[in-house]
Design goal:
Blueprint: E1 5-11, H1 30-39, E2 45-50, H2 55-61, E3 68-71, E4 76-79, E5 83-86, H3 97-106, E6 109-112, E7 116-120, H4 126-142, E8 146-150, E9 153-157, H5 163-174, E10 176-183, H6 189-198, E11 199-204, E12 216-218, H7 221-232
Parallel strand pairs: 1-2, 1-10, 2-3, 10-11, 11-12
Antiparallel strand pairs: 3-4, 4-5, 6-7, 7-9, 8-9
Helix pairs in contact: 1-7, 3-4, 5-6
């Protein structure tokens, strides 16, 4: 890669904020907020938050006007100051009635996003609801939607985009000489590989995911933020 800046990018849930049973309860970690406030003001550092959340949802949880927001797994991108860079029409799709009844009876939660429907089961034993989750995956495939796997969540999403594609685009757009990416889930594996080849990849460990090759595994937010500070020499 050519250029002079460092692209410093973070996943949100599980990387900058602790995961909760209900996604609506997730809040940015205080130390993460302080780190973002500092790094977005640094010369030669471009900061990006990369998430499967809708852009409006993400920007409401992260006060970082100097950062890029890559939302909806890359289907929405906002530049610093909220300038719209990319967006696509909202998803218009409904679950069929049988699947809707099965989900309601199983205790699963459906989150309606701008470009996806997400099925959550955190706090519910997977063995008890696995057939319903498989029904959801099959419905998504039959509806020509992308199936996105997460930690105790699966999404049926409008095709296109992707975290890795968006990160590669942003790296080119800002002329990044180096990419540092931090993530914690399967959807981060592509961006982590790209960062490992062009800078550094940091993976926040959990009992729910086996780290991909070529990454630095960290065991806590505190360790992650310490390593980021070393990277940017704060």
């Amino acid at each position: 890669m050519t250029g002079g800046s460092t692209l410093l990018a973070f996943d949100f849930d599980g990387t900058l904020a602790p995961i909760r049973d209900n996604p609506a309860d997730v809040q940015l970690d205080r130390a993460a907020a302080a780190l973002l406030a500092e790094t977005t003001q640094m010369e030669g550092i471009v900061v990006a938050i990369v998430s499967g959340r809708d852009a409006d949802d993400l920007t409401a949880r992260v006060n970082a006007p100097g950062a890029y927001f890559i939302a909806s797994h890359g289907l929405e991108i906002r530049a610093p100051g909220g300038v719209l860079v990319r967006d696509v029409p909202p998803l218009s799709v409904e679950l069929h009635s049988e699947l809707g009844r099965e989900i309601a009876a199983s205790g699963l939660r459906v989150e309606t996003k701008k470009h996806a429907l997400a099925l959550h089961w955190r706090g519910v034993p997977y063995e008890a609801i696995a057939p319903v989750v498989e029904m959801f995956r099959s419905w998504a495939t039959e509806s020509h939607l992308d199936v996105i796997e997460g930690r105790c969540v699966v999404e049926a999403r409008r095709p296109g985009g992707g975290k890795e594609e968006a990160l590669r685009w942003l790296a080119r757009a800002v002329g990044a000489a180096r990419v540092v990416y931090a993530g914690d889930d399967i959807t981060d594996f592509g961006p982590l590989k790209f960062a490992a080849e062009n800078g550094r990849a940091l993976f926040v460990a959990s009992g729910e995911r086996v780290p991909p090759p070529g990454v630095t595994v960290v065991g806590s937010f505190r360790e992650l933020f310490r390593l980021i500070r070393e990277e940017v020499k704060l």
